[in-house]
Amino acid sequence: MNIPFFSFSGMHSEIRREMLEAFERFYDSNWYILGKEVKAFEEEYAEYSGAGHCIGVANGLDALHIALQTLGVSAGDEVIVPSNTYIATWLAVSYVGAKIVPVEPDPFTYNLDPARLEEAITPNTRVIMPVHLYGQACEMDRIMAIAEKYNIAVVEDNAQAQGAEFRGVKTGTFGAVNGVSFYPGKNLGALGDAGAITTDSEELAEQSRVIRNYGSQKKYYNERIGVNSRLDECQAALLRIKLKYLDEWNARRAEIATHYLRFLNDIEEIQVPTLAEGAGSVWHQFIILSSKRDELMDYLRDQGIGTLIHYPIPPHLQEAYQHLGFKKGDFPIAEKISGSALSLPIYPGLGEEEIQYICRSLRNYFTRAPIGTSVV
Ligand SMILES: *Cc1c(COP(=O)(O)O)cnc(C)c1O
Q1: Most exposed residue of 21, 218, 297, 345, measured as fewest CB within 10 angstroms of its CB?
Q2: How does pLDDT run across 204-246, given as a tens digit for each residue?
Q3: Probe ligand 1: pick from 183, 186, 193, 287, max atoms within 8 Å of CB?
Q4: CA-to-CA separations, 95 to 61, 99, 139, 158, 272, in angstroms, rounded
Q5: Is the sign of the CA dihedral 22, 26, 32, 35 positive or negative?
């Protein structure tokens, strides 16, 4: 068997014709920036997420950066971020010149631990940025309650959780203004870079639109220092097609996760993901923790199974953040996760036989009894 860590083929083959039609429509439109496709996608994604407004931007990092800008976050402000996240969350805070205040995750859900939030809050805390990591919604009821108590804004990093819900409410709708990424490998991915901001606030939506387009509402009149970060018409046209399939694809990911959980549960040497009470997941990644991670990765590679590490170095130990003065041991939970996490293949298009083969290989490695052939 040869099972790649990730493949688009299961998704892209079934929508090939529709995608090429959308591309042709875009090609023939003679209008390539901020036109009908972006407007339609923004409306459709807002409707899908239950957000009042969606503003398409060039990528997820820009979405988070612009979100912080709309709130006026700047030097002297503190922003709480998870100690274990993709570096983009931290970079958005760096861009606005605010102070990064990392908080450790829950060691089982890997999401920002609400119990650790209050001790990180100071009079300068302006924003809490929960990241719905690996597709699982953060415990938004507890996070929002703390944010409200201290009058702090929430900006969700929803890059990995398009479609996820906390107690029936979609992520990307809890915070004042939130960022989402449509990087190709995300659950909803463009065929290139793309992202969006979601918000219920008319005013923050307006400011997001102004900032993404050179700080301008009226062409050649610039009211603030903006950026050029517009969602492409082409990507919007393609995302509109893929959005229609997102729920179906997320459901397939959930099925795969259920199989993994069922067949790996009794292996005490590995930790499988846990969902917090009320939290749903769209299973962007399926992570197992193992103290023998590197050997396990090599073994699986020898079995023809692709895996990846999300993420091998936590942000506080990255060279780029040396100047913050953090050292090894400062965030032990984040460090433990990065030292032991291994991501298994999970994507629509991954077949039943392949899932069984992966589980069988893992059971074999840890010398567990093989699963029957009729179990999946
Ligand atoms: C992918 C990702 C981003 C950034 O998205 P881009 O579109 O690549 O800029 C931000 N945060 C998290 C958690 C991500 O996984």
Answers
A1: 218
A2: 999 999 999 999 999 999 999 999 999 999 999 999 999 999 9
A3: 183
A4: 10, 10, 27, 18, 35
A5: negative
